[in-house]
Amino acid sequence: MYYFLKNSARIQISLDKYYLSFIESNTKCIVELNKSGFEILSLCNGKNTLDMIINQLYKRYPAEDTAIFIKEFLQTFENSKVVEKKAERYSGQNQVIYGTNEYYCPVSIMLELTNYCPLDCLHCYLGKKKNQHMGKNDLIKILESITSLGVQYIQLTGGEVLTYPHLEYAIDYLVSNHVQVNISTSGIIVNDNIIETVSKIKNTGGIIRVSLDGLPEYHNKIRQNKKSFQNATEFLKRIMTKKIPCEVATCIIDQNKEDIFELVKFTKELGVHKHAFELVYLQGNAQNNNIESNYRYRDFEILLEELSEEYDDKKFSISKAEECHEATNCGAGYKTYKISYDMKVTPCITMNYELGDLTESTFSEIISKHYESFQNLQAPCKMVCGDCELVKHCEMCMSKALQYKDSVKNCSWFKSQNVLVDKEQTYVKN
Q1: C-alpha of 226 from chain center
Q2: Between β-strands 97-100 and 10-14, what pairing exists: parallel, antiparallel or unpaired?
Q3: Which of 320, 348, 382 marks a domain boundary?
Q4: pLDDT tens-digit map of 285-341
Q5: Does the pTM exceed 0.70?
Q6: Statement to judge: residues 144 and 79 lie in one domain
Q7: Contacts of 221 (CB under 8 A, 6+ apart)
């Protein structure tokens, strides 16, 4: 009997780390492997029997219990339905290993497929749009590059991603390569074709996040479209009939507290599983329109605590839109990247440090050049920022700190991060 990794399972090498990923009950699971575990599973390519695997590894690990260890290890993954056995040897190419040990391979990519959006939201971080799509040939080039590295998660975004003419192609490609696909949308476009297209992400463990910034009157005003709330709600209802996990994202600006509670009550009753909140900062349209959250950060935290106490249960939760649980930084510039519609690579969706241009360099060339610099950055925190009045606004978010560094005298965080100081004139686009 020949050993195979099941279709959704794959191994990613990232520097000196090894990861096994697989889909279980429509949920993406990632397990870190030690070197011996990696060596065993890498031989589960449909070309090796148990005896063949044992013989190959015994040459490297000539211990008495090597065979027993391998049998027990493989049995564990058979029981969890990650490994399977077949009578017929696989004769074709069966790639199970992705990534490289030469540089840090990203875990997730934010792929901005288009800059076009039918809305002109007053608080949009993008600002004035050029109404351009990523070309299909460029899309194919990017998809091939990022899947070869074993990227686990792709967030498809825009502009309004539902307007992208090659959206179905992108989803089909990623689904066939067992990448978890997440989609961020305003939900403004609702039709049978769109619903069927985005529903294809279901078996990847994917999530659809829809923006709702308030009750109908407020949401329509901030989105400058009288049908935006109605369409977003209809979009959510139709997607949830497909049993795809849905989240709602809300930007806190100047909504009154009662309306925020009423909105959360509405989304919970609608059936979404998470409602995420974020503050609005002076960037893009928000800066042009002088729109900024009127909540101080501590008041924002208190609001989320009160919402959680009122509404959280086993099927529904309140959260921040972006949360960082790492000790040093969020991973921007080495764990995560954004690729824009015009082929520019930046560390994240809001940090406009241009790391490279995919029309001039390959993705591998760009990330291998920059990952060490960003990996070693310390994100803003109390230890670095001391008693700065904005420490809670910027905490663990380098993008926000870059936006606000000039609003305080002598930003101690920025001065301590030499790589950012050295490259500011080259990378930061004001």
Answers
A1: 30
A2: parallel
A3: 320
A4: 998 999 988 888 889 999 999 999 999 999 999 998 776 666 688 899 999 999 999
A5: yes
A6: no
A7: none
